[in-house]
Amino acid sequence: MVALTPISRTAPGFYVSVVAAFGAFFGVFIGTGQGNLIAGVIGGAVLMGALAFVMTTIIKNERAARWGITILLALGGYLLAGFPGLVIGTFFGWFFGFMTFWLYEGRYRAKVPPYLTPGQVLWHFSFRTICGAIFVFLITPILVVMPLSFNAEDFFTFTPEMLRFDPAGYSLKHYRDFFTSSDWQNALRNSVQIAPVATLLSVTFGTLAAIGLSQPHVPFRRAIMAILISPMIVPLIISAAGMYFFYSRVGLQGTYIGVVLAHAALGIPFVIITVTATLVGFDRSLTRAAANMGANPVTTFFRVQMPLILPGVISGGLFAFITSFDEVVVVLFVGSAGQKTLPWQMFIGLREQISPTILAVATILVIISICLLTVVELLRRRSERLRGMSPA
Amino acid sequence: MSDIKNATTADTAPTPDDALRTADVAQKKGPVLAADGKPLKKSLNRALRLQKMRALALIAPLLIFVLVTFIAPIADMLFRSVENEIVSETLPKTTAALARWDAKGDTIPDETIFEALYDDMFFAQESKLHTRLGSRLNYEQTGVSSLFRKSGRRVEDMGEVYQDQFEDFDDFWKTGENWNSIMGSDEWLAEMQAWNANPDDRQPRFVLRKGIEDVLPATTESYERFAEFVQVKDEDNLLKEDPWAIVYSSLYADLTRADTAAISAYNGPAAAQIKAAAVAAAGFETVNLSEAFFDIDKDWGDIDVWRTIKIYSPKFTNGYFLNAIDMQKSIDGPEMRPENERIYGILFWRTMVMSVSITLSCILLGYPVAWILANLPTRSANLLLILVLLPFWTSLLVRTSAWKVMLQQQGVINDTLVWLGLVANDDRLVLINNQTGTIIAMTHILLPFMILPLYSVMQTIQPTYLRAAKSLGATNWTAFWRVYFPQSIPGIGAGSILVFILAIGYYITPEIVGGTSGTFISNRIAYHISSSLNWGLGAALGAILLAAVLLLYYAYDKIVGIDNVKLG
């Protein structure tokens, strides 16, 4: 159903009024920004409608018209609000240029089925706009943190210098603070010491158990599964409280081992889920074939089964790692000052003396998560390819 | 087996196991045998059993690990929510004596109970347990903590009246060694002497002289506790310690009791001194213990204090659970707390309402996104899926701090709105430290948990159904509502339960962006465990929350199945 719809130019009444409506909408913001709402709405509508008409009936050449409007609005924005205005004006110019010709040439119908009514086409694009807004909601907090971490001031908002893209408004001082402060470095070291050991524990136990769980006849399979998944379901504060009481009784509270055990327990569900998911597609006849050719169970496991389920095991391990690396509630209760991890330090920073160094740390953590996400995604594709589940 | 003959002889070609089958037929209904001659059924069962054992052996290490590191702590927490041994352990005699006291009457306990209290308090303050008990009972009735602390300080002086009189009467009673020679057995005294000469070894534990407990029962008991305390807790040399005042009080009680036959018959060490003291003790100045306690604090005359002690005497209590639902134990059974002290009902209700609103906003925002992901070509869908997965993989604290930064009064959102002129500079929106902040931030944090299950369900819905419905004359809305939506309900159910379970127990985000009005029950639990140290109440609140979550978990297991949880 792609590009089968015949397209044709639309009537000026249609595209001019739609563009004018958009102009009125953005005029609201310009108008309120300048202190006059009505003038903004009317001005935006008239200006954009007129520009659309001029572009399509007088200039006609699409390329020239779109460059023209972009430059025009960029200049207008610069005169109104300086450098930030220039950026916004350029964006508006590009947008309205695109919008005008998109509507004028009827391209908006090209990718929707030909039988849709105008109302349905309108809904189609409104719906995409709504979804786009939700995606913006999802991603904005992460994107906002990054530039703010280069702030030269100790503020949590964009300073005028930053908005002017003045190099003086940016600095690496929060990163410097992170790499030189002993608090943060201790926290980083603790995190790096705890998470891998906890991951190793949960991956070893978890993989074995997942292989056991995927055998055809397991008594009490459902109950065992429910117990093994429960660390993911039980609210962290309850796990933390219980571990605090119990580990104090047995003398593990406030020790490195206590935190590692607690984090390993929290990571296990993720390993179980990912590895059992991988084992669903595992062909059991392969192990039988290996046994048939004289391999003992250990050899079979390491030479036949392990390479095939390795992607699942690694992504389970990454989940367990990130669980431990991000975990703050349990370590707050089970750990003591000697086990202060990175999230703990961030939590203190957010609750008490809020310092912008947190944003630098946050940016570093986001980059780490992007790397982990990429690795997991690649592993998932590889696993699907290995098991012949993906046409690609 | 009867048609085997047909199978082998009739239309099909011969197969390799024909011989076996004909052999079976020839055997006439005998059990089918495996290659090693054992009945096949048995061999199969054995193989199955072996397989089960192997599977369990693979699972066992992890199961034990989870049971020890995770389930046992939770069980411990549940136990703490009903455990209440501290009262009867610290005040054993008082609680035993109070059992006979009528708490519903309006008279405070009589002198015998004050004597028991004196005994208990004396030993409690020596081992510094009275303040712990005081703070425990303070959760139930305010003021008890200071009452116990005050009484602990002054209870030591109470017995000194007798101590001074005994010591004034005869210097013999002053020294610990004389006491030891009366109370301790001869063998023990000899061992002590040997140890005293060479104190590197362990101190020999105090052994009571035979027969002394018949003569001086109360004194024996006090002295034994004293001796144990000195030797075990303080690890001091018992020979060099002078007895506590309470030993003298007990001695006075023993010497002045009605039945003096045992004392007159006594002929052990220091018989002369004891008999002389018995005669003199009759004329000693006495202490009225209840008066003395009232003297310390008139609250000891408050019947409510005594009722509280009596109510919380048992080893196990439902008091913490009653507190957790805004009730309290009273002498007439459980009752509601006064209107102005009810906070947990509100807190549970608020947790509930906010979790529901978070779940609803997740459905509202997640449904369109899941739809568009399911209906776009795979390549663009995968690209957009990254936008969903990136927040999912980003550290929780990063996202929370991002929201803290954005929602502040001087934060990015308010600054943008002010710059656009939508909000006046002196009238910035209050988006943080209230319920709005918690709902916005948690919706963002939990949205991926809604989108991913919805997406996986929507992927299985055929788009042709919608087109078919429309071609049959359904309007857009009818086609969606009657055809598409019902098929997506499993996804909504799975996502909602998951989001709700996660939301109801959230701690970090409400703590940071919730202020006071946007906090959840978890924050209260954390407060009780780390700040107020009312662990029992924290555990009871946790147990209620856990019950709610497990109920939902069970529902989730029934509806979706835990095996079907997918990540990323």
List keywords for this structure.
heterodimer, A: 392 residues, mainly alpha, 0% strand, B: mainly alpha, elongated
Alpha carbon gyration radius of chain A: 29 Å
What's the tally of helices of chain B?
29
> In percent, how helical is the residue content of chain A?
over 70%
What is the fold-level CATH name, i.e. the topology of the largest domain in chain B? MetI-like fold
User: Biggest interface between protein chains, with counts per chain?
Assistant: A-B, 102 and 94 residues
The total of helices of chain A stands at 15
CATH architecture of the largest domain in chain B: Orthogonal Bundle
Radius of gyration of chain B equals 38 Å
End-to-end distance of chain B = 52 Å
- What is the share of helical residues of chain B? 55-70%
- β-sheet strand percentage of chain A: under 5%
Describe this structure in words.
The complex is a heterodimer of chains A (392) and B (568). By secondary structure, chain A is an all-alpha fold. Chain A is 77% helix and 0% strand. Chain A has 15 helices and no strands. Chain A has helices spanning 12-34, 37-59, 62-104, 118-148, 160-163, 173-180, 182-213, 221-233, 236-249, 256-280, 284-292, 297-326, 329-334, 342-351, 357-386. Chain A is extended, with a radius of gyration of 29 Å. Chain B is an all-alpha fold. Chain B folds into four domains: 14-79; 88-157 and 288-317, no CATH class; 160-281, no CATH class; 344-564, MetI-like (MetI-like fold, Orthogonal Bundle). Chain B has 29 helices and two strands. Chain B has helices spanning 2-9, 18-27, 40-80, 85-90, 92-98, 111-126, 130-138, 144-158, 160-169, 176-183, 186-197, 212-215, 217-233, 245-255, 261-265, 271-281, 289-296, 303-311, 319-324, 344-375, 378-393, 396-407, 412-420, 435-458, 463-471, 476-504, 508-513, 521-530, 535-559, and strands at residues 327-330, 333-336. Chain B has a two-stranded antiparallel ribbon with strand order 1-2. In chain B, a hairpin with a 2-residue loop joins strand 1 (327-330) and strand 2 (333-336). Chain B starts with a helix and ends in a 9-residue tail after the last helix. Chains A and B meet through helix 1, helix 4, helix 7, helix 8 and helix 9 of A and helix 3, helix 20, helix 21, helix 22 and helix 23 of B.
